[in-house]
Amino acid sequence: MILYLHGFDATSPGNHEKVRQLQFIDDDVRLVSYSTLYPKYDMQHLLNEVNKHLKLTSDRQPLILGVGLGGYWAERVGFLARMRTVLVNPNLWPEENMLGKIDRPEEYADIAHKCVSEFRTKNRGNALCLLSAKDELLDTSRSEALLGQYYQVIVDKRQPHKFPSLSSHLTSIKSFKFS
């Protein structure tokens, strides 16, 4: 089972395409949707939804994959649910770059401070990061500097922020899921 967390643009047709691509790895790919606008509520909602999906699968190696803002959530929820995680251009600092787009962006900073202390150290090796060198929205060098201390990072030289094609990375994702 692969749980897919969309980015801020929840209605993007690219989400459906990425789900279809992930089905080459696992037939059981499930979209887990959330509001994107209310961080405090999104966290609880995502934890409940992921827990529900975990109870409904016999997969011994489920994976959670998040794109953009979904990557922010996938890293935290994956850690709390003890799942391997794939982060695709994760938006690690939404409290800085989502001003004016979401209600109460400061809640992201609050969530980060309330999360388990040094959770990335405790989660070392349990995430794979795909970053776009051509990300037009996020500073992926900043993300790479932070996440590279804890996780394997692959930098893609072609994909833009929304990372429309996972195809060249499906082998890496599959290997990570089943390792």
Describe the fold and architecture.
With 179 residues, the chain is of the alpha/beta class. It has a single domain, classed as Rossmann fold (3-Layer(aba) Sandwich). Helix content is 41%, strand content 16%. Strands 2-1-3-4-5-6 form a six-stranded parallel sheet, sandwiched between helices. Strand 3 (63-67), helix 3 and strand 4 form a beta-alpha-beta unit. It starts with a strand and ends with a helix. The mean pLDDT is 93. Pfam families: UPF0227 (PF05728). InterPro entries: AB_hydrolase_fold (IPR029058), UPF0227/Esterase_YqiA (IPR008886).
- Mean pLDDT over the residues: 93
Low-confidence stretches: none
What is the terminal separation in angstroms?
Answer: 15 Å
What's the number of helices?
A: 8
Strand order of the largest sheet: 2-1-3-4-5-6
Assess the beta-strand content as a share of residues: 15-25%
InterPro entries: AB_hydrolase_fold, UPF0227/Esterase_YqiA
Pfam families: UPF0227 (PF05728)
List descriptors.
UPF0227/Esterase_YqiA, globular, 6-stranded parallel beta sheet, AB_hydrolase_fold, 179 residues, alpha/beta, 6 strands, Rossmann fold
Gist of the model:
This protein has 8 helices and 6 strands, in the order βαβαβαβαααβαβα.
Topology summary:
Blueprint: E1 2-5, H1 13-22, E2 29-31, H2 39-55, E3 63-67, H3 69-81, E4 84-88, H4 94-97, H5 106-114, H6 119-122, E5 127-132, H7 140-147, E6 152-156, H8 170-177
Parallel strand pairs: 1-2, 1-3, 3-4, 4-5, 5-6
Helix pairs in contact: 2-3
Pfam family, one: UPF0227
